[in-house]
């Protein structure tokens, strides 16, 4: 009985915080997101992605291969994944996911295509727009 009353008290005290975010933001924060990064280069791509909490380490993607990042947005809505893409003499640091940008652009699925002339973005994997150029 004591644990039930403690649970009820915790639930009651957390209600004001649950209404802090509008429903759409709360939905965005607590669903699982997927970022797809596809190597559309003729050669290998070295990709190293990380957030503040997760370093995924460097990965080699052969032509046509994809790296998928799965995660949930933190409660403060500040989750970001930064990636370094390296291919031959080209490289680029880019944000594969940033809440302020992507809550309006891609929802639960974001797509990136790494190509010879730059890094392309799509919200559905079909309509590609160049978002970054190589350095």
- Main beta sheet: strand number and arrangement? 5 strands, mixed
The unreliable regions are 14-23
Extended strand count: 9
Q: First CA to last CA: what distance?
A: 63 Å
Feature tags:
135 residues; 4-stranded antiparallel beta sheet; 5-stranded mixed beta sheet; alpha+beta
Structural write-up:
With 135 residues, this protein is α+β, with helices and mostly antiparallel strands. Helix content is 24%, strand content 45%. The chain has helices at residues 2-18, 23-30, 99-105; strands at 32-39, 45-50, 55-61, 66-72, 80-87, 90-98, 109-115, 118-122, 129-132. The strands form two sheets. Strands 4-1-7-8-9 form a five-stranded mixed β-sheet, with no helix packed on it. Strands 3-2-5-6 form a four-stranded antiparallel β-sheet. The model is unreliable at 14-23 (pLDDT under 50).
Question: In short, what is this structure?
Answer:
This protein has 135 residues and is of the alpha+beta class. 24% of the residues lie in helices and 45% in strands. It is built from 3 helices and 9 strands; from the N terminus they run ααββββββαβββ.
What topology does this entry show?
Layout (H helix, E strand, L loop, with lengths): L1 H17 L4 H8 L1 E8 L5 E6 L4 E7 L4 E7 L7 E8 L2 E9 H7 L3 E7 L2 E5 L6 E4 L3
Parallel strand pairs: 1-7
Antiparallel strand pairs: 1-4, 2-3, 2-5, 5-6, 7-8, 8-9
